[in-house]
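RECORD TYPE: inverse folding
INPUT: structure tokens
STRUCTURE:
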């Protein structure tokens, strides 16, 4: 682990610990107008396939942000966060990347990135969305989510998405 990785990992841990004090809210899926999904490039195709049926029933817009750690960016309509291009000298996202990410509208933010993807965790914690959902391995704590689905390292992205969507559909307005 490099010094930059250590610094961003430590900062994410501190931000997640204080995120319990941020304003939390749950929003019913049917009242949500924008959803932001975060994932890594290797899971992108499987995520898109898993979301095909959901897109037909969801009336809102689904935005995606994809983490890439190679030189060539994939050709998608998504925001790309390239680990090789978007970091400053300290290893944190450059300010224009943070600004671009924070401007993506989202009533619900769903983080499907692995636990060691600290660049995306950092961005997720900075996003102004009030309802954040994500996955956590069973030994993690303080993740900054309002809705957490516990998974094992063997779970595939399709099953994880199905679980998250099930729980998001279960949320009803008061």
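DESIGNED SEQUENCE:
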């Amino acid at each position: 682990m490099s010094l930059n990785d250590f610094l961003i990992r430590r900062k994410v841990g501190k931000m997640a610990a204080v995120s319990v004090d941020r304003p939390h809210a749950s929003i019913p899926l049917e009242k949500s107008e924008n959803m932001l999904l975060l994932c890594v490039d290797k899971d992108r195709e499987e995520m898109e396939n898993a979301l095909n049926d959901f897109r037909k029933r969801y009336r809102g817009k689904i935005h995606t942000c994809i983490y890439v750690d190679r030189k060539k960016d994939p050709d998608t309509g998504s925001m790309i966060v390239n680990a090789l291009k978007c970091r400053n000298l300290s290893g944190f996202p450059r300010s224009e990347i943070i600004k671009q990410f924070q401007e993506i509208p989202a009533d619900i933010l769903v983080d499907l990135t692995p636990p060691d993807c600290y660049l995306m965790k950092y961005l997720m914690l900075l996003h102004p969305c009030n309802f954040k959902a994500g996955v956590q391995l069973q030994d993690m704590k303080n993740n900054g989510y309002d809705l957490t689905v516990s998974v094992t390292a063997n779970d595939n992205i399709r099953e994880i998405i199905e679980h998250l969507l099930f729980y998001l559909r279960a949320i009803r307005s008061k």
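NOTES: The first helix runs from residue 3 to 18.
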